[in-house]
Specification:
alpha/beta; UDP N-Acetylglucosamine Acyltransferase, domain 1; 9-stranded parallel β-sheet; about 15% helix
Length: about 260
């Protein structure tokens, strides 16, 4: 371990071999940090926080402090961060709210400067949250999603896999998988074609998704009827099946097309 002489690290904290702690950083009693993780200058790692291997946490990040939720009454809650995450300057991450409540972050994510992950959020793997991206409580970000700078996401919203949200968007409903969304509030503009191709989706899958998006978002049908029309066609594609299942289980409703302003 390489701990700077000005850092304050509790003797009860568990730091694995190869951990680095920068100047004036503070790590409190119940923190566990995995092998090869680097904690930058003036960071605060607090609470019941578990950080995996080979993460990089940059200057001034505040990780694991009490949730910004008036319901929180001091219960034991948890923050889990996986491996190979990059957490840039002045990011803030909160644990869950209720007893044994948990905020979970997966692996290989990039959180750019000043982004915020609130209580009880779930972030998958290989996601990007750009500068000042703000996740309210109970937000779920599925794998390989991209959240643009200054995006604000409402409580209990789910951001679908391989979607991308344009900067400064206001997200108040679920963002469908594979989509490009933007606006205030965010609306669907079409498929995230660049993301789909970069992740090696087949031409056939992209074709089927494009057709499904036309039916679901550009036909003018209410979403219930659009789903029925799509299912009657009987087309088989794993990505389309996932898209349909995502929409059906949505509790906040789905962001609609930029071309349609009402059901």
């Amino acid at each position: 371990m390489n701990i700077h002489k000005t850092a304050i690290v509790s003797g009860k904290a568990k730091l694995a071999e190869g951990t680095e702690v920068g100047p004036y950083a503070i790590i409190t009693d119940n923190v566990t940090i995995g092998e090869g993780t680097k904690v930058g200058a003036r960071c605060l790692i607090d609470g019941n926080t578990f950080i995996g291997k080979r993460c990089e946490i940059f200057t001034g990040a505040v990780i694991g402090t009490r949730p910004q939720d008036l319901k929180y009454k001091g219960e034991k809650s948890i923050l889990e961060i996986g491996d190979n995450n990059i957490i840039r300057e002045y990011c803030t991450f909160n644990p869950g709210t209720s007893d044994e409540g948990k905020t979970r972050v997966g692996n290989n994510n990039l959180f750019m400067a000043y982004s915020h992950v609130a209580h009880d959020c779930v972030v998958g793997n290989n996601c990007i949250i750009a500068n000042n991206g703000t996740l309210a409580g109970h937000v779920t970000i599925e794998d390989k999603a991209v959240v643009g700078g200054l995006v604000a996401i409402h409580q209990f919203v789910t951001i679908g896999t391989l979607s991308i949200i344009g900067g400064c968007s206001k997200v108040v409903q679920d963002i469908p998988p594979y989509s490009t969304c933007d606006g205030h509030p965010a609306r669907v503009y079409g498929l995230n074609l660049v993301g789909l191709r970069r992740n090696n989706l087949s031409r056939e899958s992209i074709h089927e998704l494009n057709h499904a998006y036309k039916v679901l978002f550009n036909s003018g049908l209410p979403i219930k009827h659009a789903l029925e029309a799509l299912e009657k066609e009987g087309r088989k594609c794993g990505e389309v099946e996932y898209l349909v299942a995502f929409i059906k289980k949505s509790s906040r409703g789905i962001s609609r097309s930029c071309r349609i302003t009402a059901e």
